[in-house]
Amino acid sequence: MTGGALHRxxxxxxxxxxxxxxSLVASFLFFFCALASWFVLRPMRDAVxxxxxxxxxxxxxxxxxxxxxxxxxxxxALVVRFPPRKFIPYAYHIIVASLLVFYxxxxxxxxxxxxxxxxxxxxxxxxxxxxxxxxxxxxxxCFMADVxxxxxxxxxxxxxxxxxxxGSVAGSAATASLAHYIGDVNLLLVSCILLELxxxxxxxxxxxxxxxxSRDDGLATAASPGPEATLLDKxxxxxxxxxxxxxxxxxxxxxxxxxxxxxxxxxxVGSTFLYFEQSAIIGAxxxxxxxxxxxxxxxxxxxxxxxxxxxxxxxxxIIRWFGLVTALAFLPVVSMIGFGALANVxxxxxxxxxxxxxxxxxxxxxxxxxxxxxTVVPREDKYKAKSFIETFVYRAGDQVGAWTFAGLTAIGLxxxxxxxxxxxxxxxxLGLAIWLARRHAVMAAATGSSGRRTAALI
Length: 458
Fold this sequence. Notes:
Layout: H1 3-11, H2 21-81, H3 84-109, H4 116-147, H5 150-182, H6 187-203, E1 212-214, E2 220-222, H7 227-237, H8 246-252, H9 255-285, H10 289-313, H11 315-322, H12 324-344, H13 348-373, H14 379-383, H15 385-410, H16 415-446
Antiparallel strand pairs: 1-2
């Protein structure tokens, strides 16, 4: 297929300019391979969780949080020493090497299923994979925030997100179809291959085409490379530098980054509350495990279908036509209405509608919108602070949600009472979403809607 034909085909789903087609396709494939790799492993991780029991699971989450805290400065050390096109492959290679170590342990060291060694290796696998999956996704979006301008991100990130959604479906399907034929341990090798394909997408990512320079409006023009182009090419080979602790220090010193971190914490708290509401209502509605599995699978299918449709045809248009504030505010508004409905009418129908809208809205609108927020911060923050927020802060939010729910339950609040508590929390979340969208607009205007690095994308 020629470049022109591919552009015409993509134009049906996304507002992409001809000079952006190669970068859009590369981003799509990068995200597809990265998430497919993780979703091949996710059932194995969840099987460990099921075998460990509820008591041990809480400790596994604590271990994941601790491992994430340790990994952040180590990741930042790579950012300090190497440019993105090197440290992202290095990070992925480290993950692949760790999976090969687990492959050896699970195949030749762990022993029979259910042995003490097998349980401890499985728990280590749970903690490690739960930590590095956040880095896999965060590294991808760090790179996207670096190479795409704010205006481009609003148009393209929704479609790029489709790559991740399809990757998650493909990874899950691969595990479901291959596990009985090649064994679950061999799925680790499948995951490694997919991660290495993601590395190829990074190394060969088309940042610039010969003979083209960029204008402030993001459209490429035929010209000889000027001083800015030389500087941008140099940026590709120069490490970002700074301190390995900058992820934390730069986050706490910026009101904008603190706001993004709090936005993520409020999201995870709401998700934890909804998860327990879902468990209680579905458990009371359906008596046997098979029926519960079937209904949860149907909900998941509805979420994925709605997500793909929205990402393909609506996400970019909603952000561009109605503004970033609408996209960021969607989930808090849905949460206020949904938790209010569950407090008054705790039925399966209300729960299913709420879960589907919230999860699909998160994948299709909230996630791309949050990534747009990072396009206006300094380059060092795009890799260090962003990674810190999307890994350690995210896992910390899980802990805040779980302990908050446990504390409120301990003082006697019912599920209806907990749903009412979530309503004002969602209102606070809404106010923060509006502030972040307005702050982003101010910062984008102050930098001409771009950073010098991202303006060169073609």
